[in-house]
Structures are given as structure tokens and as C-alpha cells.
């Protein structure tokens, strides 16, 4: 009774090992076909076969001769092969007490010879066989037995590789599914941010207009304290409006940007500079080396705009100067920089400034939302490029960013 239980447990573990390879009922593959063709050629037999023993069937992965898909396990010559690590050989099946009455033996031109080597896993389970069959009785020489074992030993490395590929594919699919879920969550959050920012702009405008109306109506009647508070309220409303505009820009980037087109970056930057100079007087030097490149115009323009605005709006110098330059990196990436002559940024803040809503200046004085540099990094990183800052206090600041060629 105990032996029966042990045999049952061993068979369950063997089947579990076989199942872990996910090989049953798969398509035929060249690597396994090549092995059976080689075996048939070496031993000069009409049938060579690689098969795996399931609970009630012998499933065939590859064979020479007419295609065989599966056989009943109880009638299989390979079943006894799983009982030992050695080669199982039947020189004449008609003389075998176990197979003499087998239909494939009693049939005209039936199977007369069988030899099989078990396929053994690294953990010691015999899950299948490589076997050869002939219509004439014969015996293997010692050299042939070694050759059959050697061929069988080539099956498991291929099967292990197959298992690894399946595991890798499974992990890849899992990673892709997780990435898609993250993208869906991100898209949903960006849609919410877009909707909220869009909806709140209208009441903000109404508050701003009301503040202007009150200021005009009171005119000289209002005390300096009231005018100061009205001005502060309008500044706060303006900052909130700028904040929502930044959120809208951030959401728009993820909602899609038009495809690449030829962009004259010198002309683009010059136009942005001219537009900013209407509000903030400054001197600009734009290098003639800025090239015409293939790029998504809106995305690239957004990067330049926010870096230029950052250089202008955070520069307290009266003689404000901006320089825009370019070079092609050794790894063939476009590299641009925007240099200013401001107060500089301490190294401790070089990473912080790219975080959303992160600033190092007085926000009310600057009307700064802390979104611009976040947007820049988002756009640049989505193109597998990078943006960084080089600066120390009281030496000005230079922002670099790369762009794919």
C-alpha cells in the first residue's frame, strides 16, 4: 500500500514537472524536427520520435514518417522507458511478453524494433523520450547506445530554453499589461487635471473682472489699503490662472502632439525671444548655429518657451542677458542650451526645480506656477532625451537639453 502511495506521489510530481514546460499541444518546431531527422539518419530507421508522457497519453512533439500527434499511454512502447534512466530496448517486439499482442506489432509490416532514451529534467524527472523504431528486428551496438543517449541529451537543453523563453514572454506580457494600466491611470489623471483646470478658469476670470470693476468704481474714493488688497487679489487670481494654464499645457502634451516636421530652430527661438521682449526688456544672443531639424514643432517650441521664460522671469538683473546655443553631441543628439546672467541656482536645488509645483523664488512676486520645468522634463524624457542645469549661486544659469536627430 505504501509503495502505491509513493508511486502515485512520484507520478504527480513528474506530471507537475512536465506541465511546467508548457510543451504539450504546441506547434512543431525546427529544433526538435532536426533532432529526429538526425536520429533517423544515423540509425537508418523509418521512425524517430520525440514525445512527452502525459497522464493518459503519449504526446508527440516531433517525428519522422507520417505525422503522429498522440498515442494512448497504455499501448506506448515508451511507457516502460520512463521506469529507468537507462536506454530501454526491445530487439524483437514479437518476443516481448508486454507488447507481442500490441496492435502496432500484430499488424502487417508492424513495429519489430524499439529503442528509447528517457528525457530527464535537471530535477531528475523522466518526462518523455527520444526513441527510434523499425519494421525489422535488430539490436543496438554499444556505440549506438551511446549515440542514442547523446542525442536524447540534446533535447532537454532545447526544452529548458523553450521554458525560459516562455517565462520571459510571460514576464514581458505582464510588464506590458502593467505599463498599459499605468498609462491608463495617467491618462485618466491628466484628463481630470485638464477638465478641472478648464472649468476653473471661467470663475477666475469673473473674479478678476469683478476686482477690476470694483477698483474702477471706487477710483479715488478707495483708501490705499483697499487698493493694495484689490491689487493683491488680482495678483493672486492671475497666479491661479497661470497655474491652471500650466496644468492645461501639461495635459495637452500627453493628449498628443502633431508628427515631426522640418523646424528652423533659429527662426523659432528668435520669434519666441521677440515675443518675450515685449513684456520683459532683455538682450538676447541667438547662435546662427541653431539648425533646421526634423521634430514635433509644438513640443520643441514648448520646451524653448518655458526655458526662455524661466531665464527671463527669474532674473533680477537690470541688464538682463540671454544666450541660446547649440552643438551636435558625439552620440549624434541635438544639444541646445539657454544661458542667463542671473543670480544662479545652488546645486542643492538642481533636481528640485524640475518637480511639479516646486520653486525657489517668491511665487507671488514672480507669478511662478512651478509647472514650466516639469513640462520641459516631461516632453524631453518622452523622446528619450534629457534636460539638466549647470549653475552655482551668483554665476548665472545654463539649462541644457538634448533632442533626438
UniProtKB/TrEMBL annotation:
Kinase is among the record's keywords: yes
E.C. numbers: 2.7.13.3
Natural source organism: Rufibacter immobilis
Protein name: histidine kinase
Claim: ATP-binding is one of the keywords in the record: no
Keywords: Kinase, Phosphoprotein, Transferase
GO molecular-function terms, A-Z: phosphorelay response regulator activity; phosphorelay sensor kinase activity; protein kinase activator activity
Alphabetized SMART domains for the sequence: GAF, HATPase_c, HisKA
Entry's Gene Ontology BP terms: osmosensory signaling via phosphorelay pathway
Domain Histidine kinase: 195-405
Reaction catalysis annotation: ATP + protein L-histidine = ADP + protein N-phospho-L-histidine
Amino acid at each position: 500500500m505504501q509503495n502505491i502511495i509513493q508511486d502515485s506521489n512520484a507520478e504527480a510530481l513528474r506530471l507537475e514537472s512536465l506541465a511546467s514546460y508548457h510543451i504539450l499541444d504546441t506547434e512543431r518546431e525546427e529544433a526538435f524536427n532536426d533532432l529526429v531527422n538526425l536520429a533517423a539518419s544515423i540509425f537508418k530507421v523509418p521512425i524517430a520520435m520525440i514525445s512527452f508522457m502525459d497522464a493518459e497519453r503519449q504526446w508527440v512533439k516531433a517525428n519522422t514518417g507520417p505525422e503522429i500527434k498522440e498515442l494512448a499511454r497504455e499501448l506506448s512502447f515508451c511507457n516502460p522507458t520512463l521506469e529507468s534512466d537507462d536506454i530501454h530496448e526491445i530487439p524483437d517486439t514479437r518476443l516481448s511478453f508486454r507488447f507481442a499482442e500490441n496492435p502496432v506489432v500484430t499488424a502487417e509490416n508492424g513495429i519489430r524494433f524499439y529503442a528509447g532514451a528517457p528525457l530527464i529534467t535537471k530535477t531528475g524527472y523522466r518526462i518523455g523520450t527520444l526513441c527510434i523504431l523499425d519494421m525489422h528486428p535488430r539490436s543496438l551496438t554499444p556505440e549506438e547506445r551511446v549515440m542514442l543517449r547523446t542525442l536524447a541529451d540534446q533535447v532537454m537543453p532545447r526544452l529548458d530554453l523553450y521554458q525560459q523563453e516562455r517565462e520571459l514572454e510571460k514576464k514581458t506580457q505582464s510588464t506590458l499589461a502593467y505599463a498599459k494600466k499605468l498609462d491608463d491611470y495617467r491618462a485618466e489623471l491628466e484628463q481630470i487635471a485638464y477638465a478641472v483646470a478648464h472649468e476653473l478658469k471661467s470663475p477666475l476670470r469673473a473674479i478678476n473682472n469683478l476686482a477690476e470693476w470694483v477698483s474702477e468704481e471706487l477710483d479715488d474714493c478707495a483708501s490705499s489699503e483697499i487698493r493694495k488688497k484689490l491689487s493683491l487679489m488680482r495678483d493672486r487670481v492671475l497666479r491661479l490662472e497661470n497655474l491652471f494654464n500650466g496644468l492645461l499645457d501639461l495635459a495637452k502634451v500627453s493628449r498628443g502632439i502633431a508628427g515631426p516636421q522640418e523646424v528652423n530652430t533659429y527662426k523659432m527661438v528668435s520669434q519666441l525671444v521677440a515675443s518675450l521682449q515685449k513684456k520683459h526688456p532683455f538682450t538676447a544672443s541667438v547662435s546662427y548655429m541653431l539648425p533646421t531639424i526634423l521634430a514635433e514643432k509644438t513640443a520643441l517650441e514648448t520646451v524653448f518657451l518655458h526655458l526662455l521664460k524661466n531665464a527671463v522671469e527669474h532674473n533680477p538683473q537690470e541688464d538682463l542677458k540671454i544666450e541660446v546655443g547649440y552643438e551636435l553631441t558625439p552620440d549624434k543628439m541635438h544639444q541646445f542650451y539657454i544661458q542667463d546672467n542671473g543670480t544662479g541656482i545652488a546645486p542643492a536645488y538642481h533636481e528640485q526645480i524640475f518637480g511639479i509645483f516646486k520653486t525657489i523664488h517668491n511665487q507671488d512676486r514672480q507669478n511662478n506656477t512651478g509647472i514650466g520645468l516639469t513640462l520641459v522634463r516631461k516632453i524631453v524624457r518622452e523622446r528619450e532625451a534629457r534636460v539638466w542645469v549647470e549653475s552655482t549661486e551668483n554665476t548665472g544659469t545654463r539649462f541644457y537639453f538634448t533632442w533626438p536627430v
